[in-house]
Fold these 2 entries.
Entry 1:
Amino acid sequence: DAGVTQSPTHLIKTRGQQVTLRCSPKSGHDTVSWYQQALGQGPQFIFQYYEEEERQRGNFPDRFSGHQFPNYSSELNVNALLLGDSALYLCASSNDVNTEAFFGQGTRLTVV
Amino acid sequence: AQTVTQSQPEMSVQEAETVTLSCTYDTSENNYYLFWYKQPPSRQMILVIRQEAYKQQNATENRFSVNFQKAAKSFSLKISDSQLGDTAMYFCAFIQGAQKLVFGQGTRLTINP
């Protein structure tokens, strides 16, 4: 079992550009959540996908969007990048209410 | 809104000592789950221990145990016989239903040889 995999591991983008991050959930999991973790802080919830629909969303602007595919993998898209978008982006998968969320190793995004 | 507070930004102990990390949370819900996650420099968030709010018995996983005080909304983590590999950021987190994980600000724990 490969667990949760995220790609790429590191990324450098310029202000105003767009970025796509990818996540493959743990085998048997159907729910994917995305978190943003600024340096030295706890992760903040961006949104959650279940059955290819956004089930709930945190306090992030519309520049942050996502998608879930039939195989349960997911993408996080960020448009019009700002310097403040620089962070570690974590993907977590789970398969039921109140079960453990398994995390990937994250994508370190740097906006210059 | 649910919130999680970790009041200790950093802690440092000697190897083999016992250390306790503090966490308080705020919720109006009655059924929920609490977690402690460990995040080493490798960045991957690893579950250390979980507690179901409807269970009065404190959870234990080998050297890790919690002190869950539901009325006080307190959820501390005790690490016994600490090891160098325990050095990491530790996050307390809360979840209710199918909703988002809410994390605290984290405690940076250093185990010294």
Note: The mean pLDDT of chain B is 93.
Entry 2:
Amino acid sequence: RKEVEQDPGPFNVPEGATVAFNCTYSNSASQSFFWYRQDCRKEPKLLMSVYSSGNEDGRFTAQLNRASQYISLLIRDSKLSDSATYLCVVNLYSSASKIIFGSGTRLSIRP
Amino acid sequence: EAGVVQSPRYKIIEKKQPVAFWCNPISGHNTLYWYLQNLGQGPELLIRYENEEAVDDSQLPKDRFSAERLKGVDSTLKIQPAELGDSAVYLCASSLVSGLTEAFFGQGTRLTVV
């Protein structure tokens, strides 16, 4: 089993729709969680950190469920510009932190 | 403020040849990462530096890959000899505090081994 797993998609949704991605992680000791966005042939960029209490940034909402070991990303009122690959990132911080990326979920927004 | 700078952007080499990639992290960032990314996959960590010390190189294929970070700033990643399967994008990233703060990525070096 991979340490971080994501549904690869692609998700193809119409503009204005709400779409949600999940990501599961295998190590219960994982401490920090992030969502990164990667456009085609570009480098990954931080979209948002994921906090235990959940957090929202405009149309984006991130949730963490430690008991079930998954994080989620919800995008409301999706825009054409949201088309990208969304990478789930988990950091296991013990004596030496280890940052693990999921394989990414591809999202395509159609007009 | 300048971001993470990598060079070259693209490199095409024949198999069995050596190749080197260079990375200049964001000023003040002590943590530097080298990742490998294959098409359709997420980045995979090759090595992580805290200042000049390689603190996690467990995923680095040491028979052919080597890295250094002299003076805890710039870093180079070398492959010798390159194999066809090494074709990928090599990403460098840096962060203030390892794993707890945002990692900023360079644009990557796209390596093609023919």
Note: Chain A touches chain B through 23 residues (CB under 8 Å).
